[in-house]
Each structure stands twice: as C-alpha cells, then as structure tokens.
Amino acid sequence: GAEGSTLTSYFSKHQIQALKPKLTFSTLRDLPCPVLGSNELEGKAEEVCGAEELFEWLGAVSNQVTLDNKSSSFLSTYCCPEPSTIVEKAFLCTITGFIIPEKIIQILEQLCCYFSEPKLAYWLTLTVHGFADSPVSWRESEHGFHKGGENLYNFVIFRNLDYWLQMAVGTNDDCPP
C-alpha cells in the first residue's frame, strides 16, 4: 500500500541500510590471568579465583587496562587477582552490531569446539552486552539507563564443558529469568 511505498522511499532517500557487524581481533601477549576452578564459583584462598574477581578482570582486559599495578599510572592501579598465571598468548575478538540470539548460540557452540583440538586453553569466555540505551532489557521490561546502562551476560566455559553464567543489569531493571 501507500504506507509501504512511503517507507521504501524514505529509506532509499536517506540511504539507510542494514549494517554488518564489525569484527576486531587482537592478540594479547604475556597476559596475567586468574587461575580458575570450574567447581569453585566463590574461589578458594591461594588456590583459585572466584567469579567476581574474574568478572572484574575481564572488564580490565576488554578495556585494555594494564594489569601491573604501577603507581605512576593515571588510569588504573588494578592488578590481576591472585593466584594468577602468565598466559603467553590470549586471543580477544569483539563483534559489534545487532546480533540475534541464534547467532550467539552458534558462536558459543563454535567456541566449545575449540577445546577438542588443540587443548591449549583451560577456559574461555563469551560476553554479550546489550546497548546501554537499549529500550528493553530482561523479560521484555523497560530498560533503565540511570548511571551506566548495565545490560550484559557472560559465559565462562571450562575444558570439561562445565560453565558459569554471570549476569549484570542496572539497579532499576527486572532481574534476569
């Protein structure tokens, strides 16, 4: 009808088109990395780090904050939680765009295949961020922006295919299901 042709005309006139997700890759060398145990969610002093410590560490790594706790740093004096190990080479891939849940499941399944061969990693993570100003969050509820617009979940998958699921939402949002 007339409405459809008006929309088509509007989109073609303003050259609005679907954007392909943007991929960025980086290799992190000699990365201080927390030691984890799949059955130790809370961590264990001097043996393994817990989920909260890992979550904080992931934020620092994904924002490329140095982890060496130098007092001369104006950005951060954060350091990797203990116990830790040095990972010679870690791979960071970021996909930015509108990604449907089926694609996220597909990415997760492909990541799990990594443990088959070669068996180099003990664990890996997949973090999914909603846009900070997204209109909806969990359970189809309105998403409150307020301070930071937190709206994300993170899978930590271990070599034995145990996993942790971490979720974060803003203070006025509905809790995840």
Automatic annotation (TrEMBL):
This is RPP40 protein. GO terms for molecular function: ribonuclease MRP activity; ribonuclease P activity. InterPro entries: RNase_P_Rpp40 (IPR013893). It holds the Pfam family Ribonuc_P_40. The lineage of its organism: Eukaryota, Metazoa, Chordata, Craniata, Vertebrata. PANTHER family: RIBONUCLEASE P PROTEIN SUBUNIT P40 (PTHR15396). GO terms for biological process: endonucleolytic cleavage in ITS1 to separate SSU-rRNA from 5.8S rRNA and LSU-rRNA from tricistronic rRNA transcript (SSU-rRNA, 5.8S rRNA, LSU-rRNA); tRNA 5'-leader removal. GO terms for cellular component: multimeric ribonuclease P complex; ribonuclease MRP complex.
